[in-house]
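Summary for the steering committee. The consortium agreed at its last meeting that each partner would contribute one worked example illustrating the joint modelling workflow. Our contribution is presented below. We chose a case with several input lines so that the handling of multiple components could be demonstrated. No manual editing was applied between input and output; the record is shown as generated.
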Amino acid sequence: MLMSNPTKMRATVANGVTEVRALLQHEMETGRRKDESGKLVPAWYITDFKAQHNGRTVLEGQFGTSVSKNPFLVFRFKGGKAGDKLAFSWTDNRGEKRTDEVAIG
Amino acid sequence: MQEHDPSTMDISRRLALKAGAGLGLFGMLATLGLLPKSAWAGIERKVFEAKSLKEAFQAMGGLAPADSNFVLLDVPETAENGAMVPVTVESRFPRTEQIAILVEKNPTALVENLTIAEGTEGFISTRIKMAQTSSVIALVKADGKFYKAVREVKVTAGGC
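What follows is the complete predicted structure of the assembly.
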């Protein structure tokens, strides 16, 4: 199995609100696309994600197949400080998981 | 013991049964809470298989979400690439619990469902796939009630 690629993240705090921009690297195959030989490409997509600030979940969600390839998310939460840890985890429909971390800047 | 309004209970049971009929046995079981939820919090995975908006709303427990100007939905009028349509949803309800994005004419209606923690803003910006010109729906749950905003996006090249 191919290894997944890290989630690219930037988290910045201003006026007590932390804004996170996350780019998840994933094919997000719908299961309806055909390859060059006309064979259906099996569905392969992130089903769940979770963002945690110092261990506390600030946002979690579920994806269907209509989220774009390399899913992009911007969200904001109160209470982050520069240097705090922000962890982003996802799991896909094949059971692959990964977690990446960034320090709030 | 907690008091229940019998009329409300009756309605919610009827709606649950209706939702069950719409989605078949699986939907019924999901509605009755007999199936496991997704890996983390949120709704049952089967809701993502709902073909129509009505089925999806029913399965999420928000049968007839009211239009609300407290829900702001920012989408382009025209999307040249249906594979990557930017969507931003902002809820002005003080305690937003959930934000979901749906596309009426996609093969399955529900695109994503987000659980908003306390202290997290009722805001999300993301990118979605659209098969064809369709209504995009931002569904928001706040204080236990569902609200929505709807915008049409013209898609020139479908991306599903």
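Chain B touches chain A at residues 38-43, 45, 48, 83-85, 88, 103, 106-108, 110-117, 119-121, 123-130, 159-160 (CB under 8 Å). Strands of chain B lie at 66-67, 71-74, 78-79, 85-91, 96-103, 110-116, 123-128, 134-142, 145-155.
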